[in-house]
Design a protein that fits this description.
By secondary structure, the protein is an alpha/beta fold. The protein has a single domain (about 5-255), classed as Metallo-beta-lactamase, Chain A (4-Layer Sandwich). It has 9 helices and 13 strands. The strands form 2 sheets. Strands 1, 2, 3, 4, 5, 6, 7 and 13 form an 8-stranded mixed beta sheet that branches. It has a 5-stranded mixed beta sheet with strand order 8-9-10-11-12, with no helix packed on it. β5, α3 (about 95-100) and β6 (about 110) form a beta-alpha-beta unit. The protein starts with a strand and ends with a strand. Bound molecules: zinc ion. Zinc ion binds near residues 192 and 236.
């Protein structure tokens, strides 16, 4: 099964390079290094798979993010009706990846067991972790679980022909990356296994850490999934919008076609 893959940018945040690398005190560099916020979507003749769903305008404003437009509205510009999307992969449950899950009333959500376990477990309320999620987002997925609409993955699983998820952990307890087969090769949606190209290229993890050793291991996992024909997409790098063609006329700065 071959897919087309799109990245949809819906918000940005100003930041400095010193904020984007763990252990930055040792690094004599502090330049503007903004983040972009994305969701991704894989489309074939038979399937539509949305990968992460982004946050709402309300949450973006409360957290002082520069919000362009709801990424779920942008899906409609790509002829995708969120009411009919059957599959949503949640790479992890941080607020910027899972806040619009309620806009997919008929989807099945693919999440790692260790991710769901962490956010319903004893450390989720600790201040550092607590700030990374929205309580309502976690509760929503708990409800979806009771409706039988969560598909738990433990490690690696081909969830559909041509789409495989791999748990890396590191940045969150059960972060997973997604490999999608396209006509040109494969697209590795690394999500927050590497926020920027620079994190993996320079082997310097991002500053928000669940397990530092696993963050280094996540770089190895992402590298191991690549070959000459594959494309690796980091989770928050503005360069993605510059390196790929616009998905449709009128979506400049909003959506690009990756593969
Ligand atoms: Zn993120």
């Amino acid at each position: 099964m071959k897919y087309q893959v799109y990245a949809i940018q819906y918000a940005t945040r100003a930041a400095r390079s010193s904020e984007n690398f763990f252990g930055h005190h040792d690094i004599h560099e502090d330049n503007p290094m903004p983040l972009s916020y994305y969701i991704w979507v894989a489309v074939s003749n038979e399937h539509v798979v949305v990968i992460d769903v982004g946050f709402t305008r309300e949450v973006g404003e409360r957290r002082n993010r520069n919000y362009f437009r709801c990424p779920i509205d942008t899906l409609k510009c790509l002829d995708i009706d969120p009411n009919e999307v059957p599959y949503v992969v949640i790479t992890h449950m941080h607020y910027d990846h899972v806040g619009n899950a309620h806009k997919f009333p008929n989807a099945r959500f693919f999440v790692q067991e260790s991710e769901m376990g962490f956010w319903t477990g004893k450390y989720a309320s600790k201040p550092f972790f607590r700030g990374l999620v929205e309580e309502e987002d976690v509760v929503h997925l708990v409800r979806e679980n009771f409706r039988g609409r969560l598909h738990f993955v433990d490690g690696v699983e081909e969830i559909l022909p041509g789409i495989t998820v791999y748990r890396t952990g590191g940045h969150s307890a059960g972060l997973q990356v997604v490999k999608v087969t396209t006509e040109q090769g494969s697209v590795i949606l690394a999500s927050d296994a590497t926020h920027f190209y620079r994190n993996i290229d320079e082997n310097r993890p991002f500053s928000i850490v669940h397990n530092l050793a696993e963050m280094y291991q996540a770089f190895e996992v992402v590298r191991s999934l690549q070959d000459e024909s594959s494309v690796m997409i980091p989770g928050h790098d503005p360069l993605v919008m510059e390196q790929f063609p616009v998905a449709r006329p009128g979506l400049e700065g909003i959506a690009v076609k990756i593969g």
